[in-house]
Amino acid sequence: MPELFRAARAATLVPGSAVINDAAILTSQGKILEVGKFSDLSRAFSGSVTDLGDVFLAPGLINAHNHLELAHLRGKTVADQGFVTWVEDLIRQPIYELDPIKLDQAFSELKRTGTVMVGDIATRFAKDMAGFLQESGLFFTVFTEAIGEKVPGKGFMPRGDFDRGGYSVAGHSLYTCHAQVLQAAKAETRAKGLPFSLHLAEHDDEVAIMAGEPSGFLDLLQARGRLRDFTAPGKRPVQQAHDLGLLDESTLAVHCVKLTDEDVRTVAESGASVCLCPRSNEFINVGRAPWEKLHQAGVNLCLGTDSLASNHDLNLWNEAEYLKQRFHGELSPEDLLAMMTRNPAGALGVDDRLGTLEPGKLAVWSHVPDWLWELFE
Question: Are residues 45 and 171 in the same domain?
Fold first, then answer.
């Protein structure tokens, strides 16, 4: 039977649609049939009405970049000491010890704070993470992380069918993967029509490694037997990613802290999306992405919390508030909300189901917090 939900307001985030006051959402079998004013939709409706009260509804949030494998490391890593120190501390931790209890807590936190989907990077446990996420009730894309020197003969993705998500592939970074590994990973996602993710231009050591300059992080990697035959391309990270064919409309570039104006133009012209993780960048102390320039260039911007090894929580509203408070210039509340809804839905290829409140989409939504509600006034 159809159900009618009533709320004080609703931001549908459908282009050209304003915020609806005294809003109503008509649903059936988990999908939205109609969105509009309660006075209009209730006239011809005689079924069950759920009054949600004095709340401001928005599409369900999409946390575009996570490392949920590290959920057990909340509060256990060093902060504010730079990328190399953070990595040195991280690898002393029990990184590869999945904790189902901590994962359940992380899933509960995500759902409690309005997140309905995650883009999760799985370095080692892709099958496990897909299974846990399926059971959690969250929608998901599990990105199997490509790293190292060898292209797997059977491809990067495991097999598995899920009704709440699926697999894709992410390149770890330009400096931890050989070029042919990254290109093969990108080719596999392109052939299957899937999104591709890549940590890009996150910190100064990445820029130095690409340029062939001294880097404590490269020394650390090579001391651990990684990339001993690495040859620096002598390019900035964005240029190298572009030249390898990694940047296009299906790419989600994560962090993008160390960008020049030319880099911003390259990303924008490629059509790639960018996932900003501002609180993670602050936690590690790698700097601040040029948010304003990316926004002005028309880049499809998304937000992610990254891992609990580099952030204090998984609350995407906190990520948005942090960015809004530090953003220089104009950033409308609609644009900010789109970074957590419509934009990542497009970047992750789920905009046929999620990202807006409109007929045909899944009947999932979040509650806009007071601080953002006030910006819509």
Answer: no
214, exposed or middle or buried, with CB in 10 Å at 0-12, 13-18, 19+?
Answer: exposed
Q: Say if residues 133 and 122 touch (Cβ distance below 8 Å).
A: no
Give dist(CA 198, CA 146) in Å, integer.
Answer: 10
Instruction: Tell me the pLDDT tens digit for each residue of 123-136.
Output: 999 999 999 999 99
Predicted local distance difference test score (pLDDT) of residue 187: 97
Residue 352 lies in a domain: no
Q: Which domain holds residue 34?
A: 3-58+362-376
The type of residue at 97 is E
- CA–CA distance, 10 with 273 (Å, rounded to integer): 26
Model-level pTM greater than 0.90? yes
Query: How far apart are alpha carbons 178 and 191 in whole angstroms?
Result: 20
Type of residue numbered 326: R
The CATH number linked to 192 is 3.20.20.140
DSSP 3-state assignment of 355?
coil
- Cβ atoms within 10 Å of 152's Cβ, excluding its own: 14
How far, in Å, CA of 154 to CA of 156, rounded?
A: 7
Indicate if 104 and 24 belong to the same structural domain.
no
Query: Is 353 part of a structural domain of the chain?
Result: no
Pair of tokens at residue 331: 């950033």
Clarify whether residues 221 and 367 are in a common domain.
no
Rounded to whole angstroms, the Cα distance separating 353 from 97 reads 33
Q: How many CB atoms lie within 10 A of CB 301?
A: 25
State the pLDDT confidence band at 222, using cuts at 50, 70 and 90. confident
For the chain, how big is the Rg over CA atoms in Å? 21
Is residue 24 located within the same domain as residue 126? Answer: no
The residue among 96 and 119 whose pLDDT is bigger is 119
**Residue 85 in contact with residue 286, Cβ under 8 Å?**
no
Q: Which of 206, 195, 164, 215 is nearest to 354 (CA)?
A: 164
- The structure tokens listed for 15 are 């282009």
Between helices 100-112 and 126-136, what is the axis angle to 10°? 50
- Count how many domains the chain has: 2
